Amino acid sequence: MLPSSLPTPRLRDPDSVPVLRWGIVGPGWIAERFVKSLRENTRQQIVAVASRSRERAADFARTWSIPGAFGDVQEMLALDRLDAVYVATPHNHHYPDALKVIEAGKHVLIEKPLALNAREAADLGERARARNLLCMEAMWCDFLPKYDVLSQLLADGALGDVHSLIADHGEHFTIDHRIFNPDLAGGPMLDLGSYLVGLSVKVAGKPKKVIAIGQPAPGGRVNGQTSMLFEHGNGMHAVLNTTLFSNTPCAATIAGRDATLVLPGPFYNPGPFTLTASDGSRTLTFEDPKNRYDQLYHEAIHFAWCVGEGLRESPIRPLQATLDTLSTMDEVRRQIGVRFNEERD
Ligand SMILES: NC(=O)c1ccc[n+]([C@@H]2O[C@H](COP(=O)([O-])OP(=O)(O)OC[C@H]3O[C@@H](n4cnc5c(N)ncnc54)[C@H](OP(=O)(O)O)[C@@H]3O)[C@@H](O)[C@H]2O)c1
């Protein structure tokens, strides 16, 4: 049943969590936004950055006033005064980089997807557990106030039986972007599809049936677009498309018998959504400024809170959610014939 008003987001005060000393691996596009968001919204300390090039690390460190700059991850990990590391390298570097971090005894926050496939992700999870470390996927949307309200609505059954999820994520990239590079696990699935499959798993759990079709990008070196049809255990159908060919609305609609929730594009970013009763009698609107990457800090605050509480599994993004998402994407890739270099014998 539609509630009288929307639930309030359960926000954690950034000043209420332990201040971690962070290192960063991969000073690229998202790392820059992560640092900016942490600097503007939290007291978290970014103490070191590691790149494949000492000069690039030093440039990044200068720009963001970070005290330590390293041309090698292992050198950075030798620091005593380091609590956690944010891995922001391309997808196929997540596993080897995170492995080094775990072996050095540091907590690790890994950009999405946590690893190339469920096998790698499970291995990282087990190794982190064995060393009593937190290993969490930086699926930033899951930590946004907007997704928290969405989670509360789903848990409260506000939509009634959820029968359909329809979502797309298409983005235009220039040909020089790493997404076209087969040696960096290119194609839309891991970059854009993670949000689609992650939402489907969040709403209805791991799908029991997966049907997928794919089409190569020009030149045929990576997948260009993939369409997915899932049947979930609760009967929900998910109809999902991700493409590199052009920009699409990136919207998501979650339809239940009692109400329909519409997330305008980009559905995984901060922004408003509406919940409308099926008889059209009422609409509730969640208002949220569309301030995109400013809200990256929520994932870091949650991570620091988990560390402070001694949690080695995030209650918001537990390893199982990551594994369910990745194993579903593994099946999609199996059906469309996409294997990454690291998966070949
Ligand atoms: N949360 C989000 O909204 C969001 C948005 C975009 C991307 N992401 C995720 O973040 C990760 C990084 O994406 P990005 O767009 O930030 O990538 P990017 O701009 O290419 O940065 C990745 C960095 O990784 C380092 N790197 C290490 N090995 C590399 C290699 N073999 N080739 C290229 N770079 C290498 C590079 O730094 P050095 O050359 O200095 O070593 C590079 O700057 C991806 O997993 C992606 O899915 C998340």
TrEMBL record:
Limits of the Gfo/Idh/MocA-like oxidoreductase N-terminal domain: 20-136
Membrane-traversing stretches: none
Domain GFO/IDH/MocA-like oxidoreductase, residue spans: 150-261
Pfam families associated with the record: GFO_IDH_MocA, GFO_IDH_MocA_C3
Keyword presence, Oxidoreductase: yes
GO molecular-function terms, A-Z: nucleotide binding; oxidoreductase activity
The keyword Oxidoreductase is assigned to this record: yes
Keywords noted in UniProt: Oxidoreductase
Family membership: Belongs to the Gfo/Idh/MocA family.
Protein's recorded name: Oxidoreductase family, NAD-binding Rossmann fold domain protein
Organism of origin: Azotobacter vinelandii (strain DJ / ATCC BAA-1303)
